[in-house]
Amino acid sequence: KTSDKMAGAMGFKVGALFVSRLLSPFPLASPGDVKTIAKPIAGQIKLLAAQPGHIRNVFQGYGQIHHKTASHITLRLAGHHATKIKPLPEEEAVNLGASVLSEAFIFSVGVTAVGVELWRKSKEDAKKAEQKELKKIQKYEDLSTRFTIIEQRLNSLERKVQEDSADLKTLAADIKLLLPKLRDSEAKPSRKGW
């Protein structure tokens, strides 16, 4: 009986340690919160087992099954083969069944808390990933807009260069036409200076 209580307490401590390690970044569900919520209910389960009725019979039946299974496993591990296991007295079977089921309840509350926190964390991670993807899309759109503006300015500059080039060609053609006339006028001496 004492070893069952110690095993149950150790199981809870190990479970609480596991839950605390897993939930430590989350201040909303600490192992103390899980224990605070689950322990009183587990105590109520044990009180229900003490009262006569159908629930007591369920705890007694589960306690006997647990005792037989644990005894068979222990004997098999020791290398013995048991044909019949002596049943526990009724009160011990009820206490064992209530202890095991109340610890199972505490464990299930802890597992549920872990599951909820993991679900919440995965939801937050998905939201962060979505925001990151939206930022990438926005950055791509911004770069695309900037590229379009640069491309428009480049096209505008190319048109201006082409227009200026055409003006320069026209000017060069005019200079070529005027250059011979200018040379002729320089080659003729002026009569005033003689």
Q: How much beta, percentage-wise?
A: under 5%
Output mean pLDDT: 79
Shape: rod-shaped
- The amount of helix comes to over 70%
Unreliable stretches (pLDDT < 50, length at least 5) are: 1-16, 18-27
Major β-sheet annotation: none
- Alpha carbon gap, first and last residue: 145 Å
Q: Please tally the helical runs, counting DSSP H or I stretches of 4 or more residues.
A: 4
Rg, rounded, reads 46 Å
Structural class: mainly alpha
Report the order of strands and helices.
HHHH
Oligomer: single chain
* Total number of strands: 0
List keywords for this structure.
mainly alpha, 0% strand, 85% helix, 4 helices, 194 residues
Account of the 3D structure:
With 194 residues, the protein is mainly alpha-helical. The chain is 85% helix and 0% strand. The protein is built from four helices and no strands. Helix 2 runs antiparallel to helix 4. The longest helix is centred in the C-terminal third of the chain and has 98 residues. The N terminus is likely disordered.
What does this entry show, briefly?
The chain is mostly helical and 194 residues long. The protein is 85% helix and 0% strand. The chain has helices spanning 2-23, 31-50, 54-78, 90-187.
Give a topology summary.
Blueprint: H1 2-23, H2 31-50, H3 54-78, H4 90-187
